[in-house]
Amino acid sequence: MGEKTRIIIRSALIIGIILIALVLYRRRPSASAEGIYLANGGVDCLILANENGRLTVRQISIKEPWANFNFDKSKMTVVQTDNQLWLQSRESADPGLWARIKGNWIGELWDDNDCVVLFNASRVAGDWDLADIGPKKQVRALAPAEFAVSVPQYLHRVDDPRIVEFFDLLYYQNKPREALALGDSIAAAHLGDDCIEIMLLNAALASGDTARFVRDAEKHKDLVQSKNKRVAFATTLALQQSFGFQMTAANRNASSLAEQLLDPSTDLTHFVQLYPKFLDCDAWVRPLKELKVPPIGMSGLIEIQTRARIAIQYATLLLLQGKTDDALRLALSVFRQGKLLQQSFSDIDKIIGSAICMIASRFLVEFALNACDSEADFMHFREAFDNTSTAHDFGLQMEVAGTPNEINRNRDSSNPGDHVAIMRTIIEHDLLDERFARIAASAGYHRLKTGGLPRQSDDFKLWPGGLAEDIYTSGSKLRILSNKQDLLIYSIGPDRIDQKAAIEYDPTNGTLSSGDLVLKIPHERERVYPKGGLHAATAADVRRQFPHGLPVDLFATTKRKQLSISSGSPVYIYSFGPDMDEPEIKTIDDDSNVIDLDSDDEKTAKKHVPMNDADGFPEVMYDPTNGSFSSGDLWIEIPAPDGK
Description:
Blueprint: H1 3-27, E1 35-39, E2 44-51, E3 54-60, E4 76-80, E5 84-89, H2 97-102, E6 114-120, E7 128-135, E8 151-157, H3 162-172, H4 176-189, H5 194-207, H6 210-219, H7 229-249, H8 254-262, H9 268-274, H10 298-320, H11 324-342, H12 347-370, H13 375-388, H14 398-401, H15 404-411, H16 419-450, E9 479-482, E10 486-491, E11 517-522, H17 539-545, E12 564-565, E13 571-575, E14 585-588, E15 594-595, E16 607-610, E17 634-638
Antiparallel strand pairs: 1-2, 1-8, 2-3, 4-5, 5-6, 6-7, 7-8, 9-10, 10-11, 12-13, 13-17, 14-15, 14-16
């Protein structure tokens, strides 16, 4: 064999060995996920250990308020494939988990348990990106080609054993100051690590060291631009909390004011005095113990909404007493409360804030059409409304936060009933009600100046720009129709179909149901509120002064039911109050014959009368110190005319 042949054979062997090595390299198992991880941008920790060849969770501090995932290390199974990491929450391990994952669908394997799916981070070696979280019925094993990063670096690897001690001090021993001191030494060894900086900020917040927390939040404010969404989110929360501390110290934090309003010792008189202080608030910042959104109990939010309805109902009673300035101020404070609540970090807060704004806006329509009697009244209304409509915006959106809910929303975005579409519709409905309040004031102003209602967009002159745009169209203004009774200003509504105001949108039929959103402006004023307050010796006196009826009772179970008038003397006008104990209703015709509402005679019904309200008198006055939904009515006594 010649030298040339030997060289060729040797070269071929070397190439073959290299090719085999490359194949083996490509087939090698991925690096083990065993290690210490900072999670949620640095506010939590996860430690994965290798026990007898099986990955287990050795320590965990992750709490996900956006999902019902049970992060309990004693009930978790961890499985790692080539590029995926699965955290399974269940009482016992599923021996078929690996095979089921390789089958690429796990949709029907578990009942109510949850699962987290992560992928190797492409940007930072050793980190893991969050792909999905939620009930396993909704979780699919994603192929790499399908995977779009939803939360980059959800788990950030920092193999420093002091991290374990830090979180033990912070969360398990409840020694945040000691954790903060240890964190300073950890940070010195990991300069430039964004998650470590957030870890320290979180400890400063938990320690109660407000001065340091405010200083460090300002120092690291540039982290809101971090590519790690959880770092950006935690930084934004930190800046919000820092601002909240300053606002609380200056008595300008609406969240602190809400706590006073919900305090069991706050009676109705104090409640009415406190509420207008929302006009002096600049933000709604809930106090946090950690830089992550906490679960928010619905009961507290429902109470906040109920208190807003109480304030608006009280404002209506003030109108009847001739206290128009006090009524407007109270209503605008409710509106301001809703605007500030909309700037909170929680989706539920935003929805409740929108609901509160809608309640206030509908009162403002009533006020503009029926309580403004002069040009000065309308100018004052415009100025006060504009001053109330602005609120501090932190720009904190859940899309930026990269929460697991956002992942689920992205996945379900084609579903017309998904969370995002519903929430957007609620907020849009609120914005439209706010515009309706301005339109009503413009229409009332035009009637004052000309004697008639507007006929075209340019006639709405109280605010520049004429008639507002319809938020459900692309640049088109709200539509105008007129009939014998009313001027109709309407939006085509969330179904984006023009029904000529013949079908009114009703959210109780479904947030995304059909119908137009309609503002009805009567050609003639429905009510004239006496400047000196209402005087009446009998219920008939009240009805003569309000031939179209009183304003709506917000706490009546019968839809659009008006405030009640007592029989006898003195006269009381009252709402059924938050317990909503409206008496059973009977319907009578003109001959006082009781009508069966299920019969064909329903069309002849003329009016509704309480069956078990024989005296026609309100209960005792509602008192919030007895509980938000306690018994009692909201009422005022109407003085008799002079000489009676």
